[in-house]
Amino acid sequence: MVLAINIRADNSSAGEIERLWDQVGAFEAKPSMRTLGYRPHFTFAIYDGPGIDEKAAWDAMLAAVARETQLLIQFKRIRWFEGSPLVLWAEPAVDEALARIHGLVSATIDPAHCRPHYRPGAWIPHCTLGTDIADERRNDAIAFARAFDRSIEVMFDVVDCVVFPPVRIVAERRLAS
């Protein structure tokens, strides 16, 4: 079982990211984010296998957001993670709350239990737009990312703990407005 703790956009502002999912999905054999069946989100930590259970992950998330309210996040750029397949993601404007939450989660649960890309010093806040860009569409996807010249705002209003695959929410809480 794989666990993740996230903050997601569970409101109409999520449509901005979902429209980008549809555009990026054109570069994939199968639109990865629509197939996921889960709302736009930021993941703070992913835990594989034994060692961290649902309760520990959820308790860490609740402690990390104890004083947080809904986060209005601005996006002005689309970036990518190199690799095969290429992954496109929306880059948030600098947001101290995201870093603070991540830091508090990492202070509660030893980051050695977390996947390496989600550990302090390695974690890059990102809202994924597509995880399976076809190699033959790579250049088109990068051109799309470079051409993005808009600014969108999305309200992230629910924290949760999920298990996957497939994504199943095991605990969630709406943040105060």
From TrEMBL:
It comes from the Bacteria. Gene3D superfamilies: Cyclic phosphodiesterase. InterPro entries: Cyclic_Pdiesterase. One of its GO terms (molecular function) is ligase activity. Keywords: Ligase. The keyword Ligase applies. This is 2'-5' RNA ligase family protein. It comes from Bradyrhizobium rifense.
